[in-house]
Amino acid sequence: MSEQVHNRLAVVRAERKVSRQALAEAVGVHYQTIGYIERGQYNPSLDLALRVAAFFELPVEALFSLEPFGSLTEEIYGRKAQP
Fold it and tell me: What is 14-48 written as a DSSP string?
């Protein structure tokens, strides 16, 4: 049984203004693969997760986790996001 790998890839891509196509080219995959990962339809290999993390110069655990990520607002500011 394969466990879902949760990710913050779309958030980081948007923050850094990187398109799916640009990220895909940089890490050597098809741009649709990036979309599948972002939507949780595909778990990246360890190799691919490490290449993506290296591209963004972030630790792999900042992008991928076996546990769902909490709100960034809560993590950074210690409070819930306003609706």
Answer: HHHT--HHHHHHHHTS-HHHHHHHHTTSSPPPHHH
Q: What is the pLDDT of residue 73?
A: 72
Beta bridge partners of 7: 64
CA angle (80, 60, 30) in 5-degree steps: 105
For 27, half-sphere exposure in the C-beta direction (CA atoms, 13 angstrom radius) is 26
Per-residue confidence band for 27, with pLDDT thresholds at 50, 70 and 90: very high
- Structure letter (DSSP) for residue 57: T
Which is nearest to 5 in space by CA: 49, 35, 56, 52? 49
Residue 82 above 70 pLDDT? Answer: no
Token match 């993390």: residue?
A: 53
Q: Helix, strand, coil shares of the chain as percentages rounded to 5?
A: 55, 5, 40
